[in-house]
Write a structure and sequence with these properties.
heterodimer, A: alpha/beta, Rossmann fold, 4-stranded parallel β-sheet, two-stranded antiparallel sheet, globular, B: 145 residues, alpha/beta, 7 helices, 4 strands
Chain lengths: 218, 145
């Protein structure tokens, strides 16, 4: 994932009946669980429902919210255990994520072709929704045994984010500037996560939301 | 990762209530703030238009919640087509998944925002699953062992 932000050709925007540039919006695609902590794995919810610091940071900067589907909930269910990248890295799960990406991509394409600024806020450390980081333990399997089980954090996106960005690329759309709320990195630091998110958003604002200011590099 | 803070309650919410189109012309309550106070998460419905695949994906998620001890409600916007909830197609999708239609609460865009917020808070806090259902589902798997 890069911060490259190639503009969608304006003629394409005109062809889809896009709004005038003055009406362009700032749209934040947000991980499902950032608006609904009920989507988290068993024992993984840090809030009752809405993760209000994320909502406040985005709304105060003029972003409208577009919630993404939760790939894990619809695949492994509401009572699933936690897992790492390698456990979800299966053909069936990637097919499922592609189906979800195809469901939400027309909305995202519409925003981009209308000239809207679109960013992605994922969930760092998640095997699915991680943006800068995901969780890894190639030998995990069988009954979970926390806290004894150990896992690593790797600087790469989760599977859902990989498949979503791939679907957007298939449609000729640029990679989305993205970052992650660091909820699944082990010990959760809300103040640090908030600072991190606000720096990402403010960096974009200072740079005029241009092409290369949203890199999702770790 | 031992304590779990989830509220076990989810609200279906129209795009127009999450991102009011013209706040100056509408007297809408801050629905997200009310949801947060009441301990609800939300599932966002798409804006008006045809979103067949996305509605099916949302219905899958609602079914998962409804079948596993979560209280699900729907908050509509009075005057919007399908109340902003794509109610007709969504209802059909939920029925096909064996899900009872969630109770609905409609919000008026042109009313008194504070009064609407109060009505909404009363509706949200007043709704939950029966005690037996809550006991059945709302214990962590570790506690069950």
């Amino acid at each position: 994932m890069t911060g490259r932000d190639d503009p969608v050709p304006p003629d394409a925007a005109a062809a889809t009946g896009a709004r005038a540039p003055a009406a362009a919006r700032k749209v934040a695609l947000v991980a499902n669980c950032l608006l609904n902590q009920n989507a988290k794995v068993c024992e993984g919810a840090n809030y009752r429902g809405v993760v209000s610091p994320v909502v406040a940071a985005l709304r105060s900067r003029g972003y409208v919210l577009q919630q993404l589907p939760c790939p894990e909930l619809a695949f492994a269910g509401a009572r699933r255990w936690w897992a790492v990248y390698e456990q979800y890295d299966t053909p069936a799960y990637r097919d499922h994520c592609r189906r979800l990406a195809q469901a939400v991509a027309p909305l995202i394409e519409g925003y981009l072709r209308a000239g809207d600024e679109v960013i992605l806020i994922g969930l760092d450390g998640s095997p699915s929704t991680g943006v800068r980081f995901t969780s890894s333990a190639p030998d995990w399997g069988g009954r979970p045994n926390r806290p004894e089980d150990d896992w690593q954090i790797l600087p790469r996106p989760g599977i859902w984010i990989e498949e979503l960005q791939a679907e957007l690329a298939r449609r000729g759309l640029p990679p989305l500037p993205a970052t992650g709320w660091a909820l699944d990195m082990g010990r959760f630091d809300e103040a640090g996560s908030r600072r991190d998110l606000e720096e990402f958003l403010d960096r974009r604002a200072r740079a005029g939301a241009g092409p290369d200011n949203g890199a999702a590099s770790p | 990762m031992s304590a779990d803070a989830r509220g076990w309650r989810v609200a279906l919410l129209p795009e127009a209530l999450i991102n009011p189109r013209d706040p100056a012309c509408q007297a809408l309550p801050d629905v997200l703030a009310v949801l947060e106070s009441a301990g609800y998460g939300l599932l966002q419905l798409p804006p008006p238009g045809a979103h067949r695949l996305l509605l099916a994906v949302i219905a899958d998620q609602v079914a998962e919640y409804a079948h596993h001890g979560y209280a699900v409600v729907a908050l509509g916007l009075r005057g919007e087509a399908g109340e902003g909830l794509h109610w007709r197609p969504l209802s059909a999708l939920l029925r096909r998944r064996g899900v009872a239609l969630p109770p609905r609460h409609l919000i008026r865009a042109q009313g008194d925002a504070a009064a609407e917020a109060g009505r909404l808070a009363d509706f949200l806090t007043g709704y939950d699953l029966p005690a037996e259902e809550r006991r059945r589902w709302r214990t962590s798997p570790q506690e069950e062992r």
